[in-house]
């Protein structure tokens, strides 16, 4: 405390000079290296103050603190651009999904610049690097036997010639009877819905009546990973860095037993699945979007693995 008071009394002139970052910022042997990522904002809207507070501001504050401490710091973020919400918004605005993403990515970048959010790099998920890294992770999972195939029943609109993702279906909620429920959740009662459970379903695009049709999908075989995950969690939780909420949710998932999780969707807007029999599908955004942190870093520097595969630093 006495040292802090002394420095405070001397004023800014007593502070060490700010660190001059290298370009690109890369881990440095023997130094404290800090990689900061803030949640990727979804691309299909104009950010407002609540988005900024809940998404990027806390990470920006921490990045500024790290730089003041003269730690070697890299702060990256970017827009999350795949998924059905983008397709839906593009239809509403009469644009292609790519045109919509280009428009809103630029809006996001301008707003964060106006707020002086101190990203070292602000990227996006619709890039060749995203495709390459996501497909590489997929191929590694496939080669190691961590994927399986199974059949799902989905609504298909014969008039549009496509399977309908959750947000492209509307109908009557099977729980409360609300007539304009979406295929993923009822806005009135708040309950999650499987689209095939909707009563009187309608295609949101043409208002035709879709039919339930079986389709093959790929799943991440989480039960096969459960033993390794539990062993890792025991070591990690013992370090004490997890919040009580994170511990509770994780233990609940493991207590109930992990289930296979679908990683593909019958859509066109997304990262293509590089496997025969599934090339007309894309990766489900929950599988694809977290890889955006890696690919955005890879677009910043071709030495991105020094940040992401380098636990010693």
UniProtKB/TrEMBL annotation:
It is found in: Cytoplasm. CDD domains: MetRS_core. The keyword Transport does not apply. It catalyses: tRNA(Met) + L-methionine + ATP = L-methionyl-tRNA(Met) + AMP + diphosphate. This is Methionine--tRNA ligase, cytoplasmic. It comes from the Eukaryota. Belongs to the class-I aminoacyl-tRNA synthetase family. Residues 34-311 form the Methionyl/Leucyl tRNA synthetase domain. PROSITE patterns: AA_TRNA_LIGASE_I (PS00178). InterPro entries: aa-tRNA-synth_I_CS, Met-tRNA_ligase_1, Met-tRNA_synth, Methionyl/Leucyl_tRNA_Synth, MetRS_core, MetRS_Zn, Rossmann-like_a/b/a_fold. One of its GO terms (cellular component) is aminoacyl-tRNA synthetase multienzyme complex. GO terms for biological process: methionyl-tRNA aminoacylation. It is an enzyme of class 6 (ligase).
